[in-house]
Design goal:
two-stranded parallel sheet, alpha/beta
């Protein structure tokens, strides 16, 4: 099988590409020419295709000979909030170009949407399920909601995954302002587990034409303050975080509908163990 991965040089995209290659399939990593290609450039079975999803010709060329498409390419916050026209062009028109090119090939599409499409749900008392109403909260959520609708209306064979914020076991610089409140419910997902979800959704016939929440699971459900404290304590780094004063579009999610995808491999304690090992390696602990 040959799979096109848009955004294939990015943090999540590169994990998807490497996972495809590790299974003996071939991948086409499609990303901007100026992207950092280091993570995928020397991976056997991976072809690099520098291009832009807003360019119909380039998209059509990239789709030639592929059996499936995993569409990750998008402008993410905070960049998505700077220029609405650019965000809609990349996230919506780019998706439209993918869908149009797929129309002539019949290749199935796995679309990476976001839990941000639920808007701010801090007043909810239960976990957020896929049937929760969608709500535009910012330019990013607006673009993802519109892209989801576009895909459904197109009639292409698809699966939509609303993915929680991505966690990486790395020495991540603390942002000036943490993008959620300290007392807010937050749930992330380890980057490799998110990649597994995308590939599993592509291969599982039961997932066809459905939408799933993709998040870490119960062990990852905590407050924002707890997450930041545990993350940097595991690394061995002292930080003084400044949290958002407003609730943001992050919460706890009901992932029961998509458990058959088998992607929740790393629990939070396992993630902390990886951070501790990294902290020791870097001489921080």
């Amino acid at each position: 099988m040959r799979v096109l991965v848009t955004g294939g040089a990015g943090r999540l995209g590169s994990e998807v590409v490497k996972l495809i290659a590790s299974r003996g399939d071939s991948a086409v990593a499609f990303d901007l020419p100026q992207a950092s290609w280091e993570a995928v450039k020397d991976v056997p079975g991976v072809d690099l295709f520098p291009g832009d999803v807003t360019d119909k010709r380039q998209v059509s060329e990239a789709l030639k000979g592929v059996d499936a498409v995993i569409h990750l390419a998008a402008l993410l916050p905070p960049r998505s909030e700077v220029n609405r026209d650019l965000t809609m062009r990349v996230n919506v028109e780019g998706t439209s170009n993918i869908v149009e090119a797929i129309g002539s090939t019949g290749a199935p599409l796995v679309f990476a949407s976001s839990v941000a499409t639920y808007g701010i749900t801090a007043s909810e008392e239960t976990t957020i399920g896929e049937s929760h109403p969608l709500h535009v909260n910012d330019r990013y959520s607006e673009s993802k909601i519109e892209a989801e609708r576009l895909i459904v209306d197109s009639g292409v064979d698809h699966v939509t995954l609303r993915i929680a914020p991505i966690a990486v076991a790395d020495l991540v610089e603390l942002p000036e302002t943490i993008p959620y409140r300290g007392d807010q419910r937050v749930e992330l997902i380890y980057v490799e587990d998110a990649a597994r979800a995308l590939l599993s959704a592509m291969n599982e016939s039961e997932a066809k034409e459905k939408t799933f929440n993709i998040a870490g699971g119960p062990t990852w459900q905590m407050t924002g303050a707890e997450y930041i404290e545990k993350f940097y304590d595991a690394l061995g780094v002292e930080v003084e975080p400044r949290f958002s004063e407003e609730y943001t579009a992050v919460d706890w999610y009901d992932t029961s509908q998509g458990l058959f995808l088998g992607y929740q491999r790393l629990n939070f304690n396992g993630f902390l163990g990886m951070l501790m090992a990294l902290g020791e390696q870097l001489g921080l602990r």
